[in-house]
Amino acid sequence: MIRFALQGMLARKLRTALTAIGIVLGVALVSGTYVLTDSISSAFDSIFTENYKNTDAAITGKSPFELSQEEAAGGVAPPFDQSLLAKVQALPEVEVADGSVFGEAQLIGRDGKAVVFGGAPNLAFSVNPDRPEFNTLALVGGAWPAAGEVVIDTQTASKKGFQAGDTIAVQARGPIQRMRISGLVEFGQVSSIGGATLAGFDLPTAQALMGKAGKLDQILVAKKDGVSEQQLLTAIQQTLPEGAQVRSAEEQATADAEGTSGFLDFFRTFLLVFAGIALFVGSFVIANSLSITIAQRTREFATLRTLGASRRQVLGTVVLEALVTGLVAAVAGLFLGLGVATGLFRIFDAVGLTLPNNGLVFRTRTIVVGLLVGVVVTLVASLRPAWRATRVPPIAAVREGATLAPSRFHRFRPIGAVLLAVAGVALVLTGLFADGLSTTTVLSSLGLGVLLIFIGIALFSARLVRPLAVLSDPVARWSVVVLTVLVWPLFSLPYWLLRRGLWGPGPAGRRAAGFVLGAVLNPVLLVIVALMALRRRLSSWEPEWPADFPGVLADRPATQIGGQNSRRDPHRTASTAAALMIGLALVTLVATLGAGIIKPFEDAVDRIFSGDYAVTAQNNFSPMPPAVAAAVATVPGVEAISSVRGGQAQAFGETIFMTAVDTQAPAVLTFDWKNGSQAVLGELGSDGAVVDDAYAETHNLQVGSTFPLQTAGGRTLTATVRGIFTPPPGGSPFGNVTISSAAFDANNPQPQNLYTFVSLQGGVTAANTAALDAALASFPNAKAQTREQFKDAQSDSIKSLLNVLYVLLALSVLVSLFGIVNTLVLTVFERTRELGMLRAIGLTRRQVKRMIRQESVMTALIGAVIGIVLGLGLASLLAARLDEVSFTVPGGQVVIFAVVSVVVGIFAAIWPARRAAKLNPLEALQYE
Hints:
Blueprint: H1 2-11, H2 13-51, E1 57-61, E2 80-81, H3 83-89, E3 94-100, E4 102-104, E5 106-108, E6 122-126, E7 137-142, E8 149-153, H4 154-160, E9 167-171, E10 177-187, E11 197-201, H5 203-209, E12 215-216, E13 218-223, H6 229-237, E14 244-248, H7 249-296, H8 298-306, H9 311-350, H10 364-389, H11 413-433, H12 439-460, H13 462-503, H14 508-521, H15 523-538, H16 556-568, H17 570-608, E15 613-617, H18 626-633, E16 638-651, E17 654-661, H19 665-668, E18 673-675, H20 678-681, E19 688-692, H21 693-698, E20 706-711, E21 716-725, E22 737-740, H22 741-747, E23 753-760, H23 766-775, E24 782-786, H24 787-830, H25 832-840, H26 845-881, H27 891-917, H28 921-925
Parallel strand pairs: 6-11, 8-10, 17-22, 19-21
Antiparallel strand pairs: 1-13, 1-14, 2-12, 3-13, 4-6, 5-9, 7-10, 8-11, 9-10, 15-23, 15-24, 16-17, 16-20, 16-23, 18-21, 19-22, 20-21
């Protein structure tokens, strides 16, 4: 039986390959995700380890509470006094110690714009060439920097046309400063640090640029011989002030990597979710393909039963085929994953988001997970078809056209499908609306609920096929006509003219004229047809000819037969459409949520922002130094200007995002007050605070309530609630607690602005815009925007994320396309005699193609209709739960998704239709 199963697979190589494609793609994404993130993680580990070479201990600033790296500002511990360095150097356990500062500084290109490669950071730091043991940089040209000089990385120099000796502008916490490039550097032994730019200065210059005069961010220490690491740490600990801490080099490297590790964990999970979706869709493709194959092999299995094979042996045969298919597909997917990871690196590099890379990392865990996922998904998907195969009776071996009778549980399928869908909806509602659930429980409920909904709808959709097929029949027919009209002059006509010109009938002059016209209409097809002609000349291959002149109108007899075929077996059509249904449901869900987020956000901007202009960083989200707002304040005609500062604080035992505004805030910002008034914003003073209503309710705060607020600088202030406001549904730039800028600056050594809002005389005018641009000329990383521009810029970030989701979900749509192709190919095998009969009674090759295409497009439309409706339903549930999202149907995108489904159906039909059209009628009539 094992030999029989393997020989059967080898005899059906095409069907096996088509069945395995879904698993190959899914495992490839799983493998590629692990390889990509492991490679990035390995590169970052090398970077952080390189930072602390020859180091035994590292002293850094210490915040009184754990700082989150996710907020827009304030995620860095405060610096400490430089005098600590001398105390550490004087310790008998210390061989050598060196202090440094670091932060961000923008390098300005020759075009006057900030040098930014994607979202990578612009790193700035001090360099001490007298302590080479602590220096992670390699000087590849020029010299180390003296006062007022800078060294930059070779990547920036190469891409932006700089070399040692040139002058470059640098901007940190103040206006741009022009400095001489003393040298070019590379980072240690790491092959790539991604898109980060490097700017190194001597210590006094770096301190002045970053506003840290007399301060240090870090001290690296090397111990004397014979001193243990613990002895060194203990000795240093006794000299530390309250705002500093000491760790071993290994511990410090781990601490530095925490933020990156957290991001990579999220990124890995994010990609694996989409890999799981592709595998889930692929499981439908496998189950459907095996079901069709088993139905076609009824007489084969019956013959085995007649020859003595038991039901268990038949079951084992099908399961073995699935096991081998899954194993081979998983192995192929694993190695394809290496290509996926390489491709992702190149894609990120092409869009400017260059990631650190020290070579691809292919870990054992990746191999084990990939193989397990591929094999398990394939086996699970094969169980139902395998069980059906055991029900083939031996008598079917002598029956012409024998089919499997439905099981005794078949009549309960609709009820079971409904119960599954209802259970899924109940789990989704529980995850969304039940109180007191942990994040893990919520996500598990939502994930399992959506999974059950998909399975339930897929099982029940067989009842919907016939009515949906009646509705989609004319839509499919005329959609194909419209698309055919669009591509006729660019593809159909030139393709026919080129082929006719090379090997068609007719006068040579007319054929030559047609050939030239075809080449002009589509030069790409000229190359393809030329290759076809070369193949014809060098081999016995003959192209399909005669070919009818390409028409555009629907062929009613062919499309009618295709429509009837889609309704002939509702379960098969439903199973085929289910794969596309899942992909389009998720795409529709994402599009609807995106539209529901953008509209409330824009409404929120209109409600809060009452000024004329907003000043932000060029990338729309990075914080800016207060010097930017100071420069804008000097513009003639400024009536009011207010900045929103951002940082972190701790209150009621939890870390929160805290913001601050100045006295002019009431003129450019409008709050929806629950308690208080606009005047409160400008009168917060040294201890006043406003809080959002949810935070006030959680902690039982009222106007006049006081609570301790600990800042990242280590100081604690007693805040008095002066007002309570309700944030708009679309969100706001303000944290749970907002204090005055004066109080914020007094308790935070490195204040930064998130946004600056401005009102000018005359409002938005070309002259005012020019004046703002001129004031910001010394701050190339900042830009002034009108309210509409500000909304568009912020919305573009959301749209960019949506585009990433669309690309990842496109993989599931691609898997579903192969599912339709597979079903149609298997259907062609199944209907070989039928197709031969149709050809014998006069159906042309073109009509056969159009018949297959009509069935394919109708199947895709059925999946699209169910998927789009299901996606809108899921989006409505999420919108009902999330205040930040309003339920908005993206009409234009829904139409695009429907058109895409038609295109998917057309492309899926190309190969099966060609195979069906090439059947020899006489041979087809004799097919068993």
